[in-house]
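To the wet lab folks,

You asked to see what we're planning to order before we commit. Fair enough. Below is the target structure as tokens, and below that is the sequence we designed to fit it. If anything looks off to you, flag it before the synthesis order goes out.
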């Protein structure tokens, strides 16, 4: 999703059970990444550019059972950095 700033509720994406790669680039704000935890096949997640997670709770991504790669825009509101989450995921693991 690049530049899709008019979408208000991204949680519907959580219904795409077979989704393996999800990238938000310059979408301004995602309310929460809670829906990402429901994406059981997701291996790569990016929220980059000017994309911010409104509730700041991104550390929970480190408990995703399949996620291998993560990229996050820097934000003082986030409760963890991408590097901290990568450590919880076991570091970068190429496919």
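Sequence we intend to order:
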């Amino acid at each position: 999703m690049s530049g899709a700033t008019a979408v208000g509720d991204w949680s519907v994406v959580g219904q795409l059970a077979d989704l393996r790669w999800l990238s938000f680039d310059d979408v301004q704000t995602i309310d929460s990444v809670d829906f990402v935890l429901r994406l059981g096949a997701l291996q790569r997640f990016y929220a980059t550019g000017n994309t911010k997670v409104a509730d700041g709770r991104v550390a929970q991504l480190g408990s995703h059972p399949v996620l291998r790669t993560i990229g996050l825009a820097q934000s003082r509101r986030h409760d963890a950095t991408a590097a901290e989450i990568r450590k919880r995921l076991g570091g970068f693991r190429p496919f």
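Structural context that might help your review: The CA atoms of residues 35 and 65 lie 14 Å apart. The first helix runs from residue 82 to 88.

Thanks,
Computational group
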